[in-house]
Amino acid sequence: MDFFSAINVSSTALTAERTRMNLISSNLANANSTRTPEGGPYKRKDAVFSATPIQNRFNRELDGASGKEVRQVEVTRIIEDQNPPRLQFDPGHPDANPQGYVAMPNVNVVEEMADMIGATRAYEANVTAVQAAKSMAMKTLEISK
User: Fold this and answer.
1) What distance in Å separates the CA atoms of residue 104 and residue 106, rounded to the nearest whole number?
2) Does the predicted model carry a pTM greater than 0.70?
3) For the chain, what percentages of helix, strand and coil (3-state, to nearest 5) are there?
4) Residue 83 CB burial class (10 angstroms; 0-12, 13-18, ≥19)
5) How many CA atoms lie within 13 A of 140 on its CB side?
6) pLDDT tens readout for residues 17-53
7) What are the domain boundaries of the chain?
8) 50: which strand partners?
């Protein structure tokens, strides 16, 4: 794999992790939102990642020579959690049903914080990979002097 492909793979992973972090932030910000424009409580969102082949001529040639396919990370879709909302007894709430229960978002704050730590670590790992590829490229240029 050449330096540019290595940086491209890590940069697509950085973009995917940024999307994941944005969704986690949105989930946390709406953990108590009982009304949405679609109606009902907020539904937790999550990103689905996939590995897709990098589409450029160099990589097609490299794939043929090495027998391996260079892949990049891509957010294929954003899904809403289909778990039911949790019901909380609060008869004074404006969105309470006749029995006094309010449909609250299906967001677990502890789970979101754990996901945020994982996304942060993945982001840091990809930044390190980009810095390593950049450093190797610079060392290669220094050798040719």
Assistant:
1) 7
2) yes
3) 50, 20, 30
4) exposed
5) 8
6) 999 999 999 999 999 999 998 888 999 999 999 988 8
7) 3-138
8) 74
